[in-house]
Write a structure and sequence with these properties.
Layout: H1 3-31, E1 43-44, E2 53-54, E3 57-60, H2 65-82, E4 86-89, E5 105-108, E6 115-118, E7 123-127, H3 132-140, E8 144-146, H4 157-163, E9 179-185, E10 191-195, H5 200-206, E11 215-225, E12 228-236, H6 241-250, E13 255-262, E14 273-280, H7 293-304, H8 310-327, E15 331-333, H9 334-338, E16 352-362, H10 366-379, E17 383-392, E18 407-417, H11 420-439, E19 443-444, H12 454-460, H13 464-474, H14 483-488
Parallel strand pairs: 3-5, 4-5
Antiparallel strand pairs: 1-2, 6-7, 7-11, 8-11, 9-10, 9-11, 12-14, 12-15, 13-14, 13-17, 16-18, 16-19, 17-18
The structure holds flavin-adenine dinucleotide.
Flavin-adenine dinucleotide binds near residues 150, 160, 167 and 482.
């Protein structure tokens, strides 16, 4: 063969190799319809897209501190007169109807989003309807940052403290640890201040209390300094995760943010992991820029192209590994990193939905837990899209605590068709995963699908009976209700 022909063949091979992944990602783009399931008037739904429910009224609360108290007191009176129940909604990213009660009054808290910063004492006073993304932008202008929050910024403060979320901030218990105090409107329309000293019983119950004890209004949160952070990552075998975590993260005072990932492509399923971490550097953090929308869309498409595709899953792992290499040692601001929106993983297929599950496992049981979940996940026909790992320190503040010692949180994201068959399969899978967590002294997270029976829930949350007794103590007419309460009480 002539030299020229060899060159042409080589170029053709390179073109084919490059075009396969590009075509795979474009196929995902072309197959998306962008026709979101509309919610009919008078109905509501949550992030699961599986809880379409008719409600009596949806009330958008006022923005104004002076008006909100009066309006909510009138709503409580009306609800009692009409014998209606009240559910409370933030951004509705919980997935089991935690914000919904059939034919009830739904309070949309999002307009109530004022913010004031006490810069000297690092305290942010914020309306419970504010989203983290708004708080981050506000704090950024003042050189401050949220102390503890989830991995996305699309959630409300009230919803986040009511599930007591956790994040990827190093050495951090859940969000409750950063709450100094809050005001609560109780079932009688009175405003109570709750803190570790004032109404301490209610403080413990409301944080992680799923909107069952009243309406949270104003929250005082501890904030921290915004920092410039340098990205690093380490690729390793999952059975060495705990020991490397100690070496790379626990013993390294510079680490500020950290998360782990497990490989979920069938080839080498759960046989590779990465630890991704961000070290503080001695530079001034740059102000957050508007995200580059084109890059965000490419990232989203790479993620979506892994749905129901082994090739896509491998491609995503390799591409992200390549991107890690490229961005290794790049500098980010803490606020920039915390400000990811859930649209980064948005599912535009109206026939399927993405569902989360989370399990919290003590360090000593980490490796056995991994061994136990592997066959369960491999046997399941449901499409696993992601597993991230986060360390969560012991929670000393809430009654319904899930982190009763230092734990590792395993966050699973699945894609499920909106069919009865896959709903049943998900129920079976969830129960198996909960059993694996129980066997390994772990707990499961409560804001997701309600696939666990009352008895099994009490194995993990032995404090549940007492929690629901307290609910009746503070709300004897059970005015505040939702599907979570109906299911587990
Ligand atoms: C894509 C995705 C990623 C996620 N990642 C994480 C994560 O990294 N870490 C984590 O811990 N969780 C995570 N979650 C779960 C998330 O933290 C919870 O669903 C949280 O509740 C979302 O906040 P929200 O504003 O949507 O709350 P909602 O779903 O609106 O409400 C949650 C609960 O809070 C109650 N509530 C809301 N506002 C008030 C109020 N003002 N007063 C009293 N009660 C109120 C509601 O009644 C409900 O019971 C994730 C969820 C999704 C969908």
């Amino acid at each position: 063969m002539k030299k020229k022909q060899i060159w042409i063949i080589a170029i053709l091979i390179i073109l084919v190799l490059v075009s396969i992944p590009v075509l795979h990602i474009l196929k995902t783009k072309w197959s998306e319809t962008d026709s979101k399931s509309e919610i009919p008037k008078g109905y509501t739904n949550d992030a699961s897209q599986l809880n379409l429910t008719k409600v009596d009224t949806i009330v958008k609360v006022p923005e104004n501190q002076a008006d909100i108290v009066k309006q909510l007191q009138e709503i409580l009176k009306y609800a009692r007169e009409q014998n209606l129940k009240i559910s409370i909604a933030g951004a509705q990213h919980s997935m089991g109807g935690h914000t919904i009660y059939p034919n009830g009054i739904l309070l949309n808290m999002l307009p109530y989003n004022h913010m004031e910063l006490d810069k000297e004492n690092n305290i942010l006073t914020i309306g419970s309807g504010a989203l983290w993304q708004d708080a981050i932008e506000y704090l950024d202008q003042n050189g401050k940052s949220i102390s503890v929050m989830q991995a996305f910024s699309s959630f409300s403060v009230g919803g986040s403290i009511s599930v007591n979320g956790h994040g990827w901030q190093k050495d951090s218990p859940p969000i409750s640890s950063s709450v100094i105090s809050f005001t609560l409107m109780n079932d009688k329309g009175q405003i109570l201040t709750c803190s570790r000293n004032e109404n301490p019983e209610l403080f413990k119950l409301v944080l992680g209390g799923y909107g069952l004890f009243g309406i949270i209004l104003d929250v005082k949160l501890k904030v921290v300094d915004n920092k410039a952070l340098k990205y690093k990552y380490f690729r390793l075998s999952p059975e060495n995760y705990v020991s490397y975590y100690k070496k790379l993260i626990s013993d390294n005072p510079k680490v500020n943010l950290v998360f782990g990932r497990l490989k979920i492509a069938n080839q080498e399923f759960l046989e590779e992991a990465t630890i991704n971490f961000f070290e503080e550097v001695n530079e001034n953090p740059l102000p957050i820029k508007k995200q580059n929308e084109k890059n965000e869309e490419v990232k989203r498409l790479v993620f979506r192209s892994s749905v129901r595709s082994e090739y896509g899953k491998r491609l995503r792992w390799d591409l992200e590994y390549g991107m890690n290499k490229a961005t290794q040692h790049n500098i980010f601001s803490r606020n920039e990193l915390l400000n990811d929106h859930v649209s980064l993983i948005e599912n535009k297929d109206p026939n399927s939905t993405d569902l989360l599950q989370e399990y919290f496992i003590p360090e000593k049981d980490f490796n056995q837990y991994l061994k136990d979940i592997k066959p369960i996940l491999l046997q399941s026909k449901l499409d696993l899209l992601n597993i991230t790992i986060r360390a969560v320190n012991k929670d000393e503040d809430t009654f319904m605590n899930y982190a009763r010692q230092d734990v590792f949180g395993f966050v699973f994201l699945f894609n499920q068709k909106k069919t009865e068959k896959e709903e049943t399969e998900m129920k079976v899978l969830t129960n198996k995963l909960v059993d694996a967590a129980i066997k390994n002294n772990g707990t499961f997270y409560l804001p997701y699908r309600l696939h666990i029976g009352k008895e099994k829930m009490r194995k993990v949350y032995p404090q549940a009976d007492e929690f629901f007794k307290f609910k009746k103590k503070y709300d004897s007419d059970e005015l505040f209700q939702n599907q979570f309460y109906k299911h587990y009480k």
